[in-house]
Here is the input.
Amino acid sequence: MKVIEVSGSPREIGNLTGEALREEIREHLALFPPKIDSTLWAQRFPRFLETLKTYLPAVLAEIEGTAAGADIPLNTLFQLNLPMYANELVVEEGCTNIVFKDGKDGPLWGKNNDGLAKDERRPACARVIHRNDAIPTTVFTFCGMVATTDGMNAEGVAVGHSSVGSIFQQSDDFVPIRLWAYECMMQSRTTPEFVRRLSQLPTRGKGYSHVCVDAEGVMCSIEAPCPIMQVRKPAQDTRHMNCVNCYQLPALADTDRRTKSGKCNAKARQYFLEQSLAELSDYSVVDMQAILQHHGHPSICRHGGIDDSHTEYSMIGIPQSRRVLFADGNPCQDTYQEIQL
Here is the structure.
């Protein structure tokens, strides 16, 4: 996993990102080219573009700068960052997110990012961003994509996501949720502020479950079958939360687009986490690593087989010390490296 550090205006950040990740972006596009009907794209793109100009001008400038820096067609990068999800989309991927309210190392966020392909992994990167009008932020994403809603900022706000899906109708005039969450993370100093910002606008996208925790240990889950968004709060006196590839709020239980096997696996991981996290005492980085390395039925560190997905990389955010740890690959096999914000 390539780590890059960029600073300046949104367009300068895009240019520097494109230059630093030029080969990785091209590799990503070669392995997973956007499968979009050109006629439909031409019809819908003007509304996508108008939404970016209205609500996300900085992100628009960054995308334009990245295309220029990477020397790839701007339209191709738009297609990578503005997927045309349909209501029929079936969500297959599986990811696991965990947050601790407090403990030996303070509040923590941990995540294993999982994908379906074993041999053709999308090239991932960590971008450390110092934008001149925003809070410094580290985001983990796939090269060429602005963000996938995983990371932590220099105020100690950490956010992770799991794909779930949505049965609801969405408008092309709605803001793309992943790009909106990226901007909200770069402007939020606490969990409540992130929730307020994220919920200000109707969103479109695949439909996600998120967790968020800040340096004060304020944590929640944001369940978003786009365009709907609901906040799930921790139970009283609970020191941990999780989100996997299902909605845990009863009112949203049937609003996903999971396959039957995927939903069963997600529920099994949810149950495992609820049981195992309740038994912890230190709620430390060591505890977080042990959970992220867990193998069994179900596994959290996933190697295919009965677990279907493969863990692509693992992250641990330590909000109070503004550090992020990451392992490029399965956390049972790869050593965590550190990024200091």
